Amino acid sequence: MTSDIYSSKTGLYNIRFKSDVIHEAIEHTECSELMDYYRSRYEKLKDTGWPLEPEHLHVEEFSGKYVTKKK
């Protein structure tokens, strides 16, 4: 698989599903791996109800402010 190229001043990224942040402040390599993972999981499990459609996932630059809370 090929990795997407993302550009960020902070070097960190968020992954959103629709408007919800599902991964926050992650590095480029992890971001690319997660996006590839979600795409492949969708292709394998789309008929069984896998909820994360790739067209609704997008990567954005991490702003430096956390949105999600730690457990």
Explain what the structure shows.
It is elongated, with a radius of gyration of 13 Å. The chain has 71 residues and is an alpha+beta fold. It has one helix at 28-45; strands at residues 12-17, 20-27, 57-61. Strand 1 and strand 2 (20-27) form a beta hairpin. Strands 2-1-3 form a three-stranded antiparallel β-sheet, covered by helices on one side. The chain is built from one helix and three strands; from the N terminus they run E-E-H-E.
Brief digest:
With 71 residues, this protein is an alpha+beta fold. It has one helix spanning 28-45, and strands at 12-17, 20-27, 57-61. A hairpin with a 2-residue loop joins strand 1 and strand 2 (20-27).
How would you sum up the global shape? Answer: elongated
How much is the radius of gyration in Å? 13 Å
Q: Largest beta sheet: what is the strand line-up?
A: 2-1-3
Which range best describes the helical content: under 10%, 10-25%, 25-40%, 40-55%, 55-70% or over 70%? 25-40%
User: How can the largest sheet be summarized?
Assistant: 3 strands, antiparallel
> Could you tell me the strand content as a percent range?
25-35%
Q: Which tags fit this structure?
A:
71 residues; alpha+beta; 25% helix; elongated
List the helices and strands and how they pair.
Blueprint: E1 12-17, E2 20-27, H1 28-45, E3 57-61
Antiparallel strand pairs: 1-2, 1-3
